[in-house]
Amino acid sequence: MRKYDLLAIDMDGTLLHTDSSLSDKNREALYHFHEAGGKIVLISGRPDLMTLPYVHELGDVDLYAACNGALLADKNRNVLFSREIEEETVKNTCDLLLERGFEFSLLVREGTYSNKRSFSEFGKQNELVDHLAEKHGIPKGVLLPLEKRKDEAVYKFVIFKKEEEEENREVLERLQKDSSLTVTSSRPSIYDVSAEGVDKGLAVRMARKALGIEKEKVCVIGDFYNDMAMFSEAGLSIAMGNAPEEVRQKADKTVSSNNEDGVAEAIEKYLL
Question: What local confidence, expressed as pLDDT, does residue 125 receive?
């Protein structure tokens, strides 16, 4: 008998191993939860087409949120909710980052535009995603230079921190002063920037309303600072063992790390 009706789960650092793979143990645990009548929502910082292949690979996912909650859709890519960054703000933020010499990416629905001098990090991750996309016959996300962007809606900036902490602080303060933006972090080396009010908590709230589920019957699992916004939108919050101490302290429970299949542990121990 299941104890919660909805499981909202982060992907990188939580559901997926560090190499972006999906373990059989986690896959099986999610299958059993879904078979028990539970609903599953993936909540990722990735763009749409880098999240969707895992939705199809699992097969038991009801909804997914991309770009830190800026876009919520079903497995057929029908959008239930979206909130993009205003175009004027996109241009102003690009100007600021280019002037300061930062490397950054713009996340759009179909992929990523970047001014990174090296695409090696994205390339490796894209190879895994492209393999799953081909397997399930779904579109592949694009990865293009920043100057190729035309007028696509931007859902998130990914800003890569510099070695100089003072420069990072100055840019962070500028971004935080812009009331049209929300700033968080999905890993130590980057800032995530979305439209005002957008975070993973909003995605959980919109998902449970779409599925008709009360907050008390929601469980969320995450591993980093951008996942903490989900904690207040759930009856049970679970942090991964690899999460920073502050994240673990804010969660109701802590399980093993992502590489030790902490998601399967959470489902077996707290959800079923």
Answer: 64
Distance from C-alpha of 18 to C-alpha of 194, rounded to nearest angstrom: 25
Fold of 87-195: 3.30.1240
CA–CA separation, 34 and 132 (whole Å): 21
Please state the domain extents for the chain. Answer: 6-82+199-271, 87-195
- 6-82+199-271, what's its fold? Rossmann fold (3.40.50)
Distance CA 141, CA 52 (A): 10
Residues 6+ apart with CB under 8 A from 142: 49, 110, 111, 112
Are 100 and 142 spatial neighbours (Cβ–Cβ below 8 Å)?
no
**Average pLDDT of the residues in 112-134:** 75
Q: Is the pLDDT of residue 256 over 70?
A: yes
pLDDT of residue 182: 96
Residue type, 118: S
What secondary structure does DSSP assign to 36-103, as a single string?
Answer: TT-EEEEE-SS-HHHHHHHHHHHS---EEEEGGGTEEEETT--EEEE-PPPHHHHHHHHHHHHHTT-E
CA distance 67 to 62: 17
Average pLDDT over residues 189-216: 97
How many residues are given for the chain?
Answer: 272
Full-model pTM: 0.94
Compute the C-alpha angle 196/201/202, nearest 5°: 55
The C-alpha atoms of residue 134 and residue 35 are separated, in whole angstroms, by 27
Is residue 13 left, alpha or beta, with left meaning phi > 0 and alpha meaning psi from -120 to 50? left
Question: How confident is the model over 40-89, as pLDDT tens digits?
Answer: 999 999 999 999 999 999 999 999 999 999 999 999 999 999 999 999 99
